[in-house]
């Protein structure tokens, strides 16, 4: 019995030694244990925002596990996910230590990141139309927006806006390319044949050889013929926050409804400010506010002047052309007879017009709802219009300049208080106060009709001009021209003074038409 007990003790000691040896070997060869070293850390405890993730042997392994977990999370969505990451590690140098497996670490990191998703940047599309910019959630929303603008004028669904890379841009910017539904269907079904090019060439050759046959009204295929977007559209892919996106319905409303857009209106002959305001749905106050050159509703405007007005126009305009059949009254073009002896501001109507009637097929161009051009393709006159015939002058009329340099305007044309006893209360010219001896110049080219003393005028000069007008210069101190003398515009004709019925040194200036004075300010350049 004693022998057995001794043998048992030997076996037990051997078992203990073997177990310790196995543990030591495992520490060196199994991946879940780390061996002790005198230098640096042998194990790292990992925490994610206070959550225990596990233990790793070194930082390189942790970086690899983190990348794999992040890649797994990214595969779950096409969007960009932002995560609040607060990864902490604590290094320790221990004799023996258990580390976590690769799969455990990656799963723990994945779950921790999943719980800490902060926000998602969604894949979106930024659309720019002129100065208008908006963000849409998808490419289909961009197409829907463009199609909403097109469908306002394409009731048959014949046109489609395709997004293509803009070849003029270095970066990946998309723009639009208009295609017909037929082209889109052919491209989709792959039914564009090479023979189409040959067939087109043959048709063009036969058209060139065969004599042109006049088309009947029934031969025209009326309706929409061309359509294109009237503004440049730029589209860029982006990743944006949910709150930065605008709902499609709101964008369609903003892009397709009319906005007040400033444009230039060229004044036509016969226009008045009130008519221009009414034509453009403006008040006179609004028209004056937009134009610094217009001070009041009595401001003078001339044909060719440019005035700022507003017109209703959507953010995205559509240009379209349509073949249209019309039965309409029409006016014949005005016929002009030039008269080289008359000035350009002289004309006489020789024949009054009357409207005619016709049936036509026209190609009409529009920008949105506004007609911009019209070409008549076929015309059939029911009864002929009678043209208006106008005889007009071709000579450029003379111009008039202020007859002195400087001077202070001391009395205007028209009603006034009598400056001296016996003076007229209706002033027939304009006065500039100026020192005696100031040079006086011919306001326009002409022939001196009178030069000398003129009673109330004091020393005076009269000049007749080629347009039938006459200018008078009064209260002079010295006359420098003689009757019958031809003078050019700007010729020095006298010196100012204070002669005749005068209240002080000044120049009195008149312009007469058919012997009656008019306001010189209406004529001076």
How would you describe what is shown here?
The protein has 525 residues and is an alpha+beta fold. It folds into 6 domains: 1-26; 43-115, no CATH class; 124-191 and 217-246, no CATH class; 252-314, Membrane-bound Lytic Murein Transglycosylase D, Chain A; 318-395, Single Sheet (Resuscitation-promoting factor rpfb fold); 408-522, Glucose Permease (Domain IIA). It has 9 helices and 30 strands. The strands form 8 sheets. Strands 19, 22, 23, 24, 25, 26, 27, 28, 29 and 30 form a 10-stranded antiparallel β-sheet that branches. Helix 4 runs parallel beside helix 7. The chain is elongated, with a radius of gyration of 47 Å. The chain starts with a helix and ends in a 7-residue tail after the last strand. 18% of the residues are buried.
Overview features:
ten-stranded antiparallel β-sheet, 23% helix, alpha+beta, four-stranded antiparallel β-sheet, 9 helices, elongated
Task: Briefly characterize the structure.
The protein has nine helices and 30 strands.
Strand segment tally? 30
CATH fold-level topology of the largest domain: Glucose Permease (Domain IIA)
Number of helices: 9
CATH class of the largest domain: Mainly Beta
User: What structural class do you assign from the helix and strand content?
Assistant: alpha+beta
Q: Strand content of the residues, in percent?
A: 35-45%
Gyration radius, in Å: 47 Å
- The amount of helix comes to 10-25%
Number of domains: 6
Largest sheet: 10 strands, antiparallel
End-to-end span in angstroms?
145 Å
Assigned CATH superfamily of the largest domain = Glucose Permease (Domain IIA)
The average pLDDT value, as a whole number, equals 83
Contiguous runs where pLDDT drops below 50 for at least 5 residues? 27-38
Q: From the coordinates shown, what is the CATH architecture of the largest domain?
A: Distorted Sandwich
Principal-axes shape call? elongated
């Amino acid at each position: 019995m004693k022998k057995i007990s001794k043998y048992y003790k030997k076996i037990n000691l051997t078992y203990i030694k073997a177990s310790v040896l196995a543990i030591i070997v495992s520490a060196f060869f199994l991946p879940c244990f780390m061996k002790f070293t005198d230098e640096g850390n042998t194990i790292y405890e990992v925490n994610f925002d206070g959550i225990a993730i596990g233990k790793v042997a070194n930082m390189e392994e942790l970086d690899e596990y983190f990348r794999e977990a992040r890649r797994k999370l990214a595969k779950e969505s096409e969007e960009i996910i932002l995560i609040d990451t607060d990864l902490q590690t604590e290094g320790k140098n221990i004799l023996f230590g258990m580390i976590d497996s690769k799969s455990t670490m990656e799963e723990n990191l994945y779950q921790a990141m999943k719980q800490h998703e902060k926000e998602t940047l969604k894949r979106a599309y930024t659309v720019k139309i002129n100065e208008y910019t908006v963000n849409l959630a998808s490419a289909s929303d961009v197409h829907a927006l463009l199609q909403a603008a097109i469908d306002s004028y394409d009731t048959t669904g014949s046109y489609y806006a395709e997004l293509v890379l803009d070849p003029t841009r270095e970066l990946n910017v998309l723009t639009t390319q208009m295609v017909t539904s037929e082209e889109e269907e052919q491209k989709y079904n792959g039914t564009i044949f090479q023979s189409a090019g040959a067939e087109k060439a043959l048709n063009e050759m036969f058209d060139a050889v065969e004599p042109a046959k006049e088309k009947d009204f029934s031969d025209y295929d009326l309706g929409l013929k061309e359509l294109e977007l009237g503004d440049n559209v730029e589209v860029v892919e982006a990743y944006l926050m949910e709150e930065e996106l605008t709902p499609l319905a709101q964008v369609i409303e903003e892009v397709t409804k009319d906005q007040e857009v400033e444009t230039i209106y060229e004044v036509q002959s016969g226009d008045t400010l009130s008519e221009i305001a009414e034509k453009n749905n403006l008040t006179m106050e609004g028209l004056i506010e937009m134009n610094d050159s217009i001070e009041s509703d009595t401001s003078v405007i001339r044909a060719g002047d440019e005035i700022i007005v507003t017109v209703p126009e959507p953010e995205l305009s559509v240009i379209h052309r349509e073949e249209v059949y019309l039965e309409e009254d029409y006016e014949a073009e005005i016929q002009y007879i030039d008269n080289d002896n008359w000035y350009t501001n002289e004309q006489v109507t020789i024949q009054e017009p009357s409207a005619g009637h016709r049936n036509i097929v026209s190609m009409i161009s529009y920008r949105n709802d506004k007609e911009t051009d019209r070409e008549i393709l076929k015309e059939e006159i029911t009864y002929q219009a009678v043209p208006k015939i106008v005889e007009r002058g071709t000579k450029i009329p003379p111009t008039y300049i202020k007859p002195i340099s400087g001077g202070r305007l001391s009395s205007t044309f028209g009603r006034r208080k009598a400056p001296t006893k016996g003076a007229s209360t209706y002033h027939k010219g304009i006065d500039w106060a100026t020192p005696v001896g100031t040079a006086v110049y011919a306001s326009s080219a002409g022939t001196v009709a009178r030069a000398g003393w003129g009673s109330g005028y004091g020393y005076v000069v009269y000049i007749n001009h080629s347009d039938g007008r006459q200018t008078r210069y009064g209260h002079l101190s010295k006359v420098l021209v003689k009757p019958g003398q031809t003078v050019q515009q700007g010729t020095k004709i006298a010196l100012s003074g204070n002669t005749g019925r005068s209240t002080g040194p000044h120049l009195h200036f008149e312009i007469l038409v058919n012997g009656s004075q008019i306001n010189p300010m209406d004529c001076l350049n």
